[in-house]
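User: Hello, can you help with two protein structures?

Assistant: Certainly.
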Amino acid sequence: MDENRIKMVIKEETENIDLIQTFLEKIIKWVKLPYYISWFLFAEMLFFGHYILLIITSTSDTYLILNLLLSIVFAWFIIEIIWTCKQFERFFPVLKNIIDLEEEEIREWYIKRLKVIFNFKRMMITGVVSLIIFGIVIFKFVNYGYWLESKIVLYYDYVFLGITIVAGGMSQYSFYSLSVFIFRLAKLPFKKIIYTYATTRLTSIGRLLLKIGAGGIALIMVATLMIYLGPFEEHTYLYFLLLIFLIGAIFWFFITQYKIHQILLQRKNSRIDAISICLEKAIEEAVSNPTSEKIQKVNELKGLFIEIHSMPVWPFDLKTLFSFLATVIIPIIIIILQLILRQE
């Protein structure tokens, strides 16, 4: 792959193409601030609303920290949805270089998939369903907010918690829709090209999914902290739900990464097969009639073969992943299980 081609690919893949815009970003567009600052400020306004009502009603909240953490969780849900959408917009040039279809066909397919993943109506439906399910657990079994003295503050907190649950459900719809996207991507025809740059860039999709998974795990850690600090009557139900979500997040991560792995492995094997045929032919010609040009060609093909053979077939470093599992995931599972057993 010559230098000009490399520069052209790099330029294409660093373009920021505005394919779609989520409703969550549109509704705060009038605020002349970055979306993450706007939503964070809105979340903190919800927190200060709770604080102001405490002053108005002349009551106190011993567990005020819970509302602060809740505002962070709410902002995190919304910001991560918008951030993920913006990150995925950047992968359109990558798909142009690896999918064997016309650019307009690829664009049409890609926009259609993004609109499904970030469909606001579907996200809202999932959010409402989540509110119904978690509302039963939190309000019936946990008796959330029983420590508050004012009914006004209590109802306000119900609304605050409710919209946070809805935001969480919305994010779950988008992130699990991403797994469908990866499965559909694997079914598209890929170009039979020798150069490795486009495929190497494909691993960035897998790394993005890794970041999303890490963000979900961080949220589970915050939720665990909230339950630990709070005076909830029934911790077991909540810890059990967190454990289910953690296992689901791990499963989601591995199933999406495995599909990326299959795509990379298939392309690597096809490249190795193609270059092996060329290398074998070049060696036969060099042996039968050795010349400096033919020997140089063999060396060049050998170098290309080694480069292709060293191409990664996973979007992440396995040692880093195992270290992450050993130092973060497994301890979280153990802590949650210990908290569940302690409650029993």
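That covers the first. Now for the second protein you mentioned:
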Amino acid sequence: MTTSRYKRRPDGGIAPSAGTRGWLAPRRGAGGAQRGLVILVITVSLLVTASLATLMVARVGLFEQKFSGVDMRDKEVYAAAMGGLEHGLSWLRENVTTLDFRGGRADGLGGADTAPGYRTQLTADGYDHHITYTLKTPANPDKAAMPAIVEVRSRAVALNDSQVRKSVATDVMIGRVINPFAGTPAEGPLIFTGPALMIEGCVTGGGRGNPALYPGMGHAMGTTSGIAGAGPTAQAIEGCLASGVVRQCAEGVAAHQCPLLAPTAKVALDPRADNLWSAIFAEGFTPQHLRLLSQDETASAVVLHVDGGYPHTAGQPGWSGGDWHASAGTPERPVILYFDASAGCPAIAAGVTVHGLVYYPPGCGEKGVIRGSVHGTVAIAGNLLDLGESARIFGRTLDFSHLGGLGGGTRIHPGLSKDLIRFAAIPGSWRDF
């Protein structure tokens, strides 16, 4: 007899007999384990993902912080270098005539010099500044109007990290002063040619003694009042230049043997000029420029601006008021002797010789200001009443090329005075390293 594995339950259903395991009973263990493993894998994956994300965010943050710090240092050292460049340009303007470019050619090309170093403190660090000037042309080009070109380079180095450094540079063109004399090209040599005697007004007096003009091959006298011997103005001009004031002499002839100045020897300077200054000096050149030159270390031996503050440098001839007793200039190195109105009308004393251009303000033409001799030109603003009984004026062409202060080939003296030099940064020459 076969025993059934199932028995009927009281409710009429069928259930497995005791001791048997029906296929309808649930299987514990396998399914639960699988579900737990899945949950574990998911949980671990989320933890790994979260950890990686956290690490990535942290790494990005550290990188950005590091990059931000580097960027700040780069910007700061760049700002330090640019500040040094501005300082270097300013220092050059004030000290250009003191620079001595050594280490290059004999004429200075390729030579270098430096400005005094200095130190600044910025936010992240302090910086040492080094300014170098390098000549890219000869210090004194052959033509007076040609500029000298100098590279100005600034290098900033961090104090706490010498690896943090920056260099910037630009080229500067240093132009010569304009030619101070009227009627001459700006790029031409500094040469002045004029009559032996120049006045602004008329010759009105009879004079004393035997003042003499030795014009050589040039004109004896000129005035800004008009054009002598030209059309309807001739009579008026010749009438303005009264005879009997000075004598016109040939070279080597004693003054008392010379005839009085003939009207045909008189010539106007420039009928377009309404004053003597404009007839002699270029437009834009002023008495203040002469004063600056007289105060300049290089030009002060050439330009003597006599006023209440004279002498302006230790090397200038002394003067304490009254007559002028110092001989000045040579045929090769003439001077400009300018008497300011505040100085009065110092007479050039007997026995004194001046080679150059002598300029007197209005009012001096009646005081006999020339008693010694002048080789060049005497210019007197206003009318001329009395030149001086023993005056001897020898007309000469005056070469002021030495006014540029050209000394050693490695030193720049392009404008005679830092106040007259023209500086200009060359466009497109800026660069960084």
